[in-house]
Amino acid sequence: MRGRGRDRAILAVIFVFVLTAAFIDYPQIWNDAANRLNPKIDAAVQKIGGEKLAWRVGISQFPTAFFGRTLEEFTLGLDVQGGVQMIYDIDSSTVAQGDKEEALQALRDAIERRVNFFGVREPNVILERSPGVDRLIVELAGVSDPAEALAIVQEAPFLEFREEGEAPDPQDPYFGFVATGLTGQHLKRADVVFDPNTNEPQVSVTFNDAGKDIFAELTRKNLNKRIGIFLDGNLVSAPEVQQEIPSGQAVITGFIDPQTGAPSIDIAKEIARNLNAGALPMRINLVSQQQVGAALGQEVLARTIFAGIIGFLAVVLFMLIVYRFPGVLASLALVFYAILFIALFKLIPVTLTLAGIAGVILSIGMAVDANILIFARMREEMASGKTLSAAIDEGFMRAWTSIFDSNMSTILTSVILYLVGTSFVRGFALALGVGVILSMFTAVFVSRRLLREFSRFRYLTVPWLW
Question: CA 14 to CA 300: how far, in whole Å?
């Protein structure tokens, strides 16, 4: 009896989790029920004289966040939702060879911060390396206007600090500045401040630890010389160094409105915002741009989902015909698996691409693989004369090693594909890996409890059913 009570308690917890996951998948079910019931609850409370308490009674809307994650609609990838893909050549000539790898990663991160800052959900920013050519691929799902996409990426300014060369041209105050290696890569944050004497807007920039050391050395060796501050190749300020600055802070001035000729706080704010969104450590040049229409993606998505439904029903039908009552329980566990899988995709969240959806569909078939091994072992044990309860326990024990080995090999393959694959391969690998891990839980943990619970009902122990 103690084991039976424990199994029922575990099943109750599982049902609560699955029910919660179902509402996470589609919270409108809960909200519609609440909207229908709340007027009746209020009316019932008022009828018994509880007018003052009526406002406290009722069913609230389903939570909009779980575990710090906001529940939103599923995030669709470029191939499903449509959007814009841009390919840029990377100009790494201003970066030392030894710092190139770090600068390329900083560039990717800066672009990703940039598009996130402007509200583009789940951007895909990829570095593509080949001998002699470095390229950046930016995919913005849901952005239909190519001009908007270009603005989101290219408004990110290239910040650079340069020092005077050996022989600057005295006739041209902007000539002769040379690169120092101190760029937006080393920026920590930027803020709008005001000159205490003139009250003109300025942008104060703070460097990270590496940039702080470079800036201190730069100011130390350039005493009584100018340091040029360039944004996108344009000189915006060239202050003279009066003393070494070890604090890692600098000020950019000269934000003049070209129309009025007066200092502009709006321009200063825009520069600070763009720098915080991602000052680029290297220049990028657009070489290719293409727009992916949403209509084609939606058509393929509808066909893929239809294929997934057919595959799901085919698996259920196979389990019912071949394994009878255990097949019914395996199908129930498969439904639990699908509900939990979708909830995980919303909570993580995972961007749904066509490749990722293919991984989901494949994992549905693999989700019953463990059940087939278990049920085959169970039948062997029952054929040897063991009771149904003993056959269930022995079947799980004998099948576990095979289940663990086969699933671990799939998980390891998924990890490798995710680490070294392209964006589409990574989407497939993530969906497949998460699906296999979840299938181990539903097949081994959930199915076992269901089998043990229902095997205790005498009218379900007919040998033909098993």
Answer: 34
User: Which residue carries 């937006």 as its tokens?
Assistant: 184
> What letter does residue 118 receive in the DSSP assignment?
T
Q: Domain holding 298: CATH number? A: 1.20.1640.10
Name the H helices within 26-169: 28-47, 78-81, 100-117, 146-154
Quote the tokens at residue 209. 């630890």
Q: Are 396 and 371 in contact (CB under 8 A)?
A: no
Task: Residue count of the chain, please give it.
Answer: 466
Pairing of β 133-141 and β 283-292: unpaired
Residues 149 and 217 in one domain: yes
DSSP for 255-308, written as a single string: -B-TTT-SB-HHHHHHHHHHHHHH-BSSEEEEEEEEEE-HHHHHHHHHHHHHHH
Based on the fold, state whether residues 267 and 370 are members of the same structural domain: no
Question: For residue 274, how far is the Cα from the chain centroid?
Answer: 23
Q: pTM of the entire structure?
A: 0.59
Q: What are the structure tokens assigned to 122, written together?
A: 């789940």
**CA distance linking residue 228 with residue 223, whole number of Å:** 13
Among 435, 107, 36, CA closest to 282: 107
* Domain that residue 40 falls in: 19-70
Question: pLDDT 10s per residue in the chain (466 long)?
Answer: 455 677 778 888 888 888 888 888 777 777 777 778 777 777 776 776 555 554 555 677 777 666 555 566 667 777 777 788 888 888 877 777 777 787 788 778 777 766 765 555 556 788 887 777 888 888 887 776 767 677 767 665 677 888 887 655 555 555 578 888 888 778 788 888 888 888 888 888 888 888 899 989 998 988 888 888 887 677 777 778 878 888 888 887 777 787 888 888 888 887 777 666 555 667 788 888 887 666 556 677 778 778 878 888 888 888 888 888 888 888 888 888 888 888 888 777 677 777 778 788 788 777 778 888 888 888 888 888 888 788 888 888 888 888 888 889 989 998 998 887 766 677 788 888 888 888 888 877 888 888 887 777 776 677 677 7
Question: Which of 70, 96, 131 is at the close of a domain?
Answer: 70
Q: Provide the β-strand partners of residue 141.
A: 83
What residues contact 353, with CB distance under 8 A and at least 6 apart? Answer: 77, 78, 79, 80, 423, 424, 427
**Token output for 268:** 């200063």
